[in-house]
Amino acid sequence: MLISVVGLGYVGLPTAALLASRGMRVIGVDVDERVVAGVNSGRIHIEEADLDAIVHVTVGKGMLRATTKPEPADIFVIAVPTPYHGKPDTSYVECATQMIAPVLRSGNLVILESTSPVGTTERLCQMLAGARPDLKFPIGNGEDVDVSIAYCPERILPGKVLYELVNNDRIIGGMTERCTKRATAFYQLFCEGECLPTSARTAELCKLMENAFRDVNIAFANELSLICEQFGINVWELVRLANRHPRVNILQPGPGVGGHCVAVDPWFIVDSAPEQARLIRTAREVNDSKPRAVLKKIRSFAIELSSQGVLRPGIGCLGLTFKADVNDIRESPALAITEAITHWGDCDVFVAEPHLRELPGELAGKNHVVMTNASDAIARSEIVALLVNHREFSHIERSSLAGKKIVDTRGLWS
User: Fold this and answer.
1) How would DSSP label each residue in 266-302?
2) Domains along the chain?
């Protein structure tokens, strides 16, 4: 069996490597020549536990190779980005669809894994049917098809991708019942979790709703933290006490919501059903506004210090990633907060991020921004903002915080 995985990013590369490690021949396809060259050299461009070793071994055995152009295969797995820029951007899915169309043949199975608005799998099918009128596709042909098409969303957590690819349940949404059965048979080759059959549209909305559910619950916690700020109440104590109720489980607040899923996917629902998704929209607005509330508090401390004669205070920003103990900065509220602070121009910024080797993006090259360790950042700052609860930060001596203005967005010191 020859598998083609289109897109060698945070989902595609681990998937390709896992399949190759299970004895399947895999072709990884990516438009970035540097990514392709790296994979073919047995190297990875993302950080994920154990992935480097698996890629190195499977490439060495000839089970995994990468290319910039699709080749004929038995199964095509599309795992390309679907960002949100005011509207869902499915252009990468469309590009991948156009790329594989010329090499499709009768008997193929095409699976879309990218998080997508409802109806995307149907549009993919229509695009392929238009590009290859010599083949029969599910739309308009029922079960009498040459190429089967299904949607199966990834449900993985950065840092645990390889484990969750194998152990998590999978939602299998085929365009027809036969498409679902074919896709299920494929995932059962390497998944130990249960494969749950449904329709393509249901699978698309299921992925979005899973993350919208999490976003709404985080928004409740974040809104609660703002209310507690108003009344001078410790939100961490309040959540702890409320959660002693047998039917209450409030999440922990933070500086906002980041990552490639929770911070993005709910907008796909809002875009498709704006009149119905009122709660989902409000949750997104609450979570998107939380970094501004954090910045307001930091700014108030800076103004207070200025009135006391500290004209250029040091601000220690602890953490830049979107969650603890990973190097992923996609949609990170911690990064957005730190970048906003650097725009003030009247303070020095000391950044501690143990999971990055250098300052990312616009932070790099600014002479008033220094990357250092947590202890040094605290020592050189009058204001300390804990933005990410990395395990390393939990070992910071409380005595080093004496006399500092503290903004603890994670409750580590509260």
Assistant:
1) HHHHHHH-TTT-HHHHHHHHHHHHHHHHHHHHHHHHH
2) 2-208 (3.40.50.720), 254-408 (3.40.50.720)
